[in-house]
Amino acid sequence: MSEFNEGGGGAGAQGGDAGPPVDSQAGDASPGEVAEDGQRRGPKLPVYSTSPKRLWVPIVLCIVGAGLLAICLNLEEGLPDYTIADPSLGVGANLIDAILFIGIGAVAAFILILLVRKRGINALERVMTFAFLVLGTFIIWMYGIYLISIVDRILFGGFLDIIWSYIWMVAAFAIAVVLVWLYASPRFANRQGIHNVIVVVFGVLIGSYLASLIGTWTSLIILMGFALYDIYSVRKGPIKEMMQRVAPDGGDDLTGVDIDDITIDIGIGDLAFYSMLTSITLISAEWGGPGLVALSGIPLLYLVPFAAAVVGVLIGAWISFELVKKNKILPGLPMSIFIGIGLYSLAIGICLLFIFM
Fold it and tell me: Is 39 left (phi over 0), alpha (psi -120 to 50) or beta?
C-alpha cells in the first residue's frame, strides 16, 4: 500500500491530530489511532504517522538502515541477482523481469480490494499482518543465514553444521512473531510510536532485500514503473477505493491555521521503495558508488550517488507534502522516485566526466 496521506485536524484522541475518519460518526482518527474510550478506530494500516515537521525522520531512518544492511549483504559475494527472463536478452530481460514484478504487485492490489469489498476494510489489517509474518520470517532468516555463512567461513572454516540453518529458521520466525505482535496487538493500540518503529523495521528489511536481490537496471525500471502505477492506484485504482472505505467523507479542506496540527501517514510501500532506491546507489557496480570507485580509485566518490539520491527523495517528499495539503491523499512515490533517480544519475554523469576528462 503506497500513499502519502494527510490526516486532517479534528477531535481525535492524539491531541487533535487526526487521520481519515472510519465513518461519519467516528470523528477523525489515523489508521490505528485510539479514541478517548481507548478503542482503536478502524484498521491498523501499515503507515508511519508523523507531523509535517518530522516528515523526514522515517524516510532518513529507512534510507540509512536499509543502506547499511544492503552494504553488509554485498561485502563478499552478496546475493545472486533475481532473473526470470534470459539474461542474454540484455535490456529486454530487465524490462521483462520488471514488468512481471510490477504485474504481480498490481494483481495483488486488485485481489486485496476484492477482499475488502467482500470482507470489509478490517480484512486488510489481517492480510497485512499475515504478510508481515511471512515476509519478515523469510527476510530475517535470509539475512541470518548469510551472516552465519560468513562467520563460519572466516572463523570456523566451514565447520558449522547444516543444523544451524534450521535453528536460525526457528529464531527468525520467533523474531517475526514478536515484531508482528508489537504491530498488531490491541495492547499496543494506543502507542503510535511502537507502530511507527515496526513500520520502519519492515521498510528497512524490504527495501534492502529488494535492492540486494534484483539487478540494478531491473530495479530502476521497477521503481519507475511502480511510481507510475502509484499515480493510477491513488487516483482511480485500489488505493483510492480502500481509502474511500476508510474515509468516505474525504475530510474538509485545510486552512493555514491547522496545517501544523495535521498528521501525515506515509505508506510502508513508499518507505520501502525509497530505501530500495538509495540502497542501489551503495551496492551497484554498474550505476552506483562502487562503480565510480572502481573506475576512479577515489573512495570519496562512493557516497556521491547516495547523497544525490537522498536529496532527491527528500525534495520529492517535501513537494508531495506541499501538494497533499489540497489533495488530502497523494501518491507518495512519483516525486521522490523520479527526482531521486534524476539527481542520482546526474551525479554519476558529472563524476564520470570528472574521471575521464
Answer: beta
Identity at 269, one-letter amino acid code: G
pTM: 0.83
The answer to whether residues 181 and 194 touch, using CB atoms and an 8 Å cutoff, is no
Closest Cα to residue 58, out of 230, 252, 255, 264?
A: 264
DSSP, collapsed to helix, strand or coil, labels residue 138 as helix
Q: What is the pLDDT of residues 302-333, one digit of tens each?
A: 999 999 999 999 999 999 888 877 766 778 89
Distance CA 41, CA 35 (A): 7
Q: Is the pLDDT of residue 42 over 50?
A: no
- Scan for cell 562512493, then name that residue: 302
Exposed/middle/buried for residue 224 (C-beta within 10 Å: 0-12, 13-18, 19+): middle
Question: Cα–Cα–Cα angle for 133, 3, 244, nearest 5°?
Answer: 100
Q: Which three cell numbers stand for residue 188?
A: 499496543
Q: Give residue limits of the domains in the chain.
A: 4-356
257-284 pLDDT, tens digit per residue, is: 455 667 888 889 999 999 999 999 999 9
| Residue 193 host element (H or E) | helix 192-213
Nearest to 43 by CA among 110, 166, 127: 127
